[in-house]
């Protein structure tokens, strides 16, 4: 088997490879292997389950060898490198493992090719939507993602304490975490999320706007690619204001520069009692603080909130000369047995059936299976970076009224009695309400604008840098037209 792991230095050499070619297998010398070049960011799971799945397929194929080309960790850097390489040579790679927001841009730029058939069966519709652009399917979702609320379970003096379900619950609990009369371990701040000037800020902005009942853009009726801008509304303005207000009230000042890894470290070190992060963090934490934390879906104004839908899509490049075996690999990775391995390894499968106890078991065995102690290049990435009073109820987008039913915590460490990972229920619920980001070839400009406009509002002085929704609305109208 052995899949060669190319270094970043190999990228320059790859851009000089021959371009073009049709989908038909070309003649091969006797005994020669077809090399599939797969460009991907680093695996962020506790163990490299995605790479192990690909290597297992590779080992069973004596005619194919998969060569991994590792992209920069940061999402924006990885995208820029992929675009530059494929624009120079569309055959530089055979497969690309993309952030879900890149699919439309790569399709519109003819950097990837449409796929025949329907490889999206059995998936949530919002997951499947990330692989479509126009009338075609351009990718196969590999793993999806929905953010969860992580919380400490071992510090509350009230034995009947329940994790927060609403934003108002969270703000009160974050304040309580700084009060020695309510916790056995006093936290300097209550809550941490990702507000650095990168994609994490866009994600948190969208979630706050949605929780307020607002929108930045919505897809036009009857159009597969066009969006209507709706940023200049009171509810959208409230969502933007709420994000900045919560930062000043319940988050550490350094969250303004934080990524997923930074907030993970804050939670591990006991600096905060609550954290928004992705499912892969569960296994990382479980290895260090098992039994001391739990997860629930993100809060909303009056109950469960809506997470931004994350994840990775696999696509075949427009110039690949190995499209046949490349498509076979895509179909293999989307099968139930492989998708279940992702759930066990801390990723979110794209198939609904993978979350059921009676569903197929993981195809990986031995040291390659999640929890099997596999060697690999896992590692962490940025996923790609004052306590106070609670808000007043009744204003647009403010937290809901008290008295909502508390969220039920997930079970402790290790698989539950049904054999599923303990975060499965919370993750499945979160995926049921998760929402995709705009599927547009102009997404890079969209997210850059959000970051540029929102980040200055995250200051300790509320009089500095407010987000004007009218200005944002005007600028978004240009961005969503490609201007």
Protein model, in words:
The protein has 483 residues and is an alpha/beta fold. The chain has 15 helices and 14 strands. The chain has helices at residues 10-14, 49-59, 75-88, 103-108, 125-129, 167-176, 199-211, 234-250, 260-268, 280-289, 323-333, 336-344, 424-433, 443-454, 469-479; strands at 5-6, 34-40, 64-70, 95-99, 132-133, 136-137, 140-146, 148-152, 191-192, 217-219, 227-229, 274-277, 293-297, 309-316. A six-stranded mixed β-sheet has the order 1-3-2-4-14-7. Strands 9-12-8-13 form a four-stranded mixed β-sheet. A hairpin with a 7-residue loop joins β10 and β11 (227-229). The longest helix has 17 residues, at 234-250. The protein is globular and about 70 Å long. Mean pLDDT is 84; it is low at 1-29 and 374-413.
In short:
The chain is α/β, with parallel strands linked by helices and 483 residues long. Helix content is 32%, strand content 13%.
Largest sheet, in brief, is: 6 strands, mixed
Q: What overall geometry do the principal axes of the alpha carbons give?
A: globular
Q: Number of helix segments?
A: 15
Provide the low-confidence segments as ranges: 1-29, 374-413
Instruction: Provide the structure class.
Output: alpha/beta
Strand ordering within the main sheet: 1-3-2-4-14-7
Mean pLDDT: 84
Helicity level = 25-40%
Global Rg: 22 Å
Give the helices and strands as they follow along the chain.
Answer: EHEHEHEHHEEEEHEHEEHHEHEEHHHHH
Strand fraction equals: 5-15%
Alpha carbon gap, first and last residue: 48 Å
Q: What features would you highlight for this structure?
A:
alpha/beta, four-stranded mixed sheet, disordered N terminus, six-stranded mixed sheet, 483 residues
């Amino acid at each position: 088997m052995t899949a060669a792991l190319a270094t970043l230095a190999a990228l320059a050499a790859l851009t000089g490879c021959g371009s073009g070619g049709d989908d038909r297998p070309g003649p091969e010398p006797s005994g020669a292997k077809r090399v599939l070049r797969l460009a991907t960011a680093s695996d962020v799971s506790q163990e490299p389950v995605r790479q192990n799945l690909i290597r297992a397929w590779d080992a069973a194929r004596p005619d194919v060898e998969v060569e991994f080309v590792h992209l920069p960790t940061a999402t924006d850097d990885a995208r820029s490198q992929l675009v530059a390489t494929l624009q120079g040579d569309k055959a530089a790679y055979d497969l690309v493992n993309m952030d879900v927001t890149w699919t439309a841009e790569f399709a519109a730029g003819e950097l990837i090719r449409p796929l025949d058939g329907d490889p999206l069966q059995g998936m949530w519709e919002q997951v499947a939507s990330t692989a479509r652009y126009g009338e075609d399917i351009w990718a196969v979702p590999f793993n999806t993602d929905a953010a969860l609320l992580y919380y400490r379970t071992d510090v509350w003096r009230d034995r009947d304490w329940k994790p927060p379900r609403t934003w108002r619950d969270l703000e009160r609990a974050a304040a309580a975490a700084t009060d020695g009369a309510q916790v056995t371990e006093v936290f300097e701040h209550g809550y941490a999320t990702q507000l650095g000037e990168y994609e994490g800020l866009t994600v948190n902005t969208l979630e706050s706007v949605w929780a307020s009942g607002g929108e930045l853009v919505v897809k036009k009726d009857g159009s597969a690619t066009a969006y209507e801008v709706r940023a200049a509304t009171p509810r959208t303005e409230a969502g933007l204001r709420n994000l900045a207000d919560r930062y000043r009230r319940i988050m550490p000042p350094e969250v303004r520069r934080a990524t997923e890894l930074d907030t993970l470290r804050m939670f591990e070190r006991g600096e905060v009692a609550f954290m928004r992060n992705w499912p892969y963090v569960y296994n990382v934490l479980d290895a260090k603080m098992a039994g001391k934390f739990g997860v629930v879906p993100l809060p909303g104004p009056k109950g469960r909130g809506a997470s931004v839908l994350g994840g990775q899509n696999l696509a075949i490049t427009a110039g690949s000369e190995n499209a046949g075996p490349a498509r076979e690999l895509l179909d293999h990775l989307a099968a139930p047995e492989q998708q279940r391995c992702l759930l066990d390894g801390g990723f979110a499968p794209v198939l609904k059936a993978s979350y059921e106890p009676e569903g197929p078991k993981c195809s990986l065995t031995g040291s390659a299976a999640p929890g099997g102690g596999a060697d690999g290049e896992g590692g962490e990435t940025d996923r790609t970076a004052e306590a106070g009073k609670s808000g007043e109820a009744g204003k647009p987008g403010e937290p809901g009224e008290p008295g909502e039913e508390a969220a039920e915590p997930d079970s402790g460490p290790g698989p539950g009695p049904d054999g599923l990972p303990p975060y499965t229920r919370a993750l499945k619920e979160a995926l049921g309400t998760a929402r995709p980001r705009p599927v547009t070839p102009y997404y890079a400009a969209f997210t850059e604008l959000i970051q540029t406009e929102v980040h200055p509002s995250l200051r300790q002085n509320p009089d500095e840098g407010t987000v004007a929704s009218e200005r944002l609305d005007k600028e978004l109208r240009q961005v969503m037209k490609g201007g």
